From TrEMBL:
Domain DUF4200: 11-128
Keywords linked to the UniProt accession: Coiled coil
Superkingdom classification of source: Eukaryota
A GO-annotated cellular component: cytoskeleton
Pfam families: DUF4200 (PF13863)
Entry protein name: CCD42 protein
Organism: Furnarius figulus
InterPro entries, per database record: CFAP_domain-containing, DUF4200
Biological process terms in GO annotation: spermatid development
Recorded coiled-coil stretches: 11-112, 159-201
Length: 235
């Protein structure tokens, strides 16, 4: 028989071991929960870092795009400014040339001024001794004469061109009509030849027609004789 004391002692040992195991299991579970919390915290931190990194990358990409857009805008602005500078330089060069031309023209006019002064005094004398009221009226009359002369020359040139064109059309019409008359003469000559041939062929055709009529009369007579013979045969 088993000793009850030994059994009780063994039971206490087992119970104590079970308590130790429960305590160890509880500690392990607590450590596991702590570890899971740490891992969850690290996971949340990792997600936060990922979100921050994604936002940073998006901001970086946006910054790069903005920088690229600013760079393109700067290049376009520089290109436009360069074109504007070239345009302004060309305009300045053209203005310098025009200024130089104006200076040369001014120099020429300055040299001609004494002559025009004499001409002006001459016009003043003309005004005093004519029906004109002032120099402007004389110049207006002179310009009107120039316009009239120009219009007259243009009218003469126009009439000359019309006359030349009319003569050319007349020559062309004459040539066309001469060709038509020549063609008509040729056609008339050909028709005359046809008429002569037809007139020469008339006796031949008349003889043919008489021969045809004679043969037709003979055939009609033979047909009549044949009909009378057939009639008498059946009587």
């Amino acid at each position: 028989e088993e000793d009850p004391t030994s059994s009780f002692v063994c039971l206490l040992k087992k119970k104590k071991e079970l308590q130790c195991l429960d305590k160890l299991l509880a500690e392990k579970e607590e450590a596991f929960q702590e570890r899971m919390e740490v891992i969850a915290e690290q996971w949340r931190d990792l997600h936060a870092r990922r979100a921050q990194l994604k936002a940073h990358m998006e901001r970086s990409e946006k910054t790069v795009e903005e920088n690229e857009m600013l760079r393109n805008q700067a290049l376009q602005k520089a290109k436009k400014e360069r074109e504007d500078n070239i345009k302004r330089e060309n305009e300045l060069l053209r203005a310098k040339r025009e200024l130089e031309a104006l200076r040369k023209n001014y120099h020429k006019l300055s040299q001609k001024l004494p002559k025009y002064s004499k001409f002006k005094r001459y016009l003043e004398d003309v005004v005093e001794n004519s029906q004109f009221q002032d120099i402007e009226e004389i110049t207006s009359f002179y310009n009107m004469l120039l316009r009239s002369r120009k219009e007259l020359l243009q009218s003469q040139q126009w009439h000359k061109e019309l006359t030349e064109k009319a003569n050319m059309l007349l020559e062309q019409y004459k040539a066309e009509k001469e060709d038509e008359m020549l063609q008509c003469k040729n056609d008339l000559e050909e028709l005359k030849q046809y008429l002569d041939q037809a007139r020469s062929d008339v006796p031949l055709w008349e003889n043919c027609w008489a021969d045809i009529q004679n043969r037709a009369a003979k055939k009609a007579m033979k047909l009549r004789t044949l009909e009378m013979a057939i009639y008498n045969l059946f009587q």
